[in-house]
What we know:
The protein is mainly alpha-helical. The chain folds into two domains: about 120 residues, Arc Repressor Mutant, subunit A (Orthogonal Bundle); about 30 residues. The protein contains seven helices and two strands, in the order αααααββαα. A two-stranded antiparallel ribbon has the order 1-2. The radius of gyration is 19 Å and the shape is globular. The chain starts with a helix and ends with a helix. About 15% of the residues are buried.
Amino acid sequence: MGDENHGHIDAAAVLPRLMQFNTVLNRSRLAERAMDRVGIPLDRPGLTVLVTLRMAGEPLRVGEIATRMQVVGPHVTRHLHELERRGLVRRVTDPSDQRARLIELTAEGSGAASRYLESMVDWFTDALVDWSDEDRQTLGRLLSRFVDDLTAGLAAIDDQAT
């Protein structure tokens, strides 16, 4: 086969493994198990808001949270009301624009997000314990590149459709 078809063969070989990876994550209930370790009953979107803020390391505007979650602003706003009511996030004034508000984690919200992330990291670290440093770095680099390229390609398709 020529080089022209080479990329299709590689992608076709990887797709079943990606599907298997997705099945393993779903069947193992990995996210749900990590959510149980949080110690606070939360739905997945609410927890994703907390994790997004925790990973940002700083307060964010609602639109930025939505962008990072790859959802629309009203979706985030619905979940923020409940998270705020429960004392997991709070609205603060944006120092660069006194009219705008940022969302920041409370100590309880930060703790919940940290416990979730620690659980997930622990499980993935355990799975990679016998891998060399080079193999772990290669996986991280290639997975990041793949997700970025796939996201950009799908965004371009969405842009063409609108």
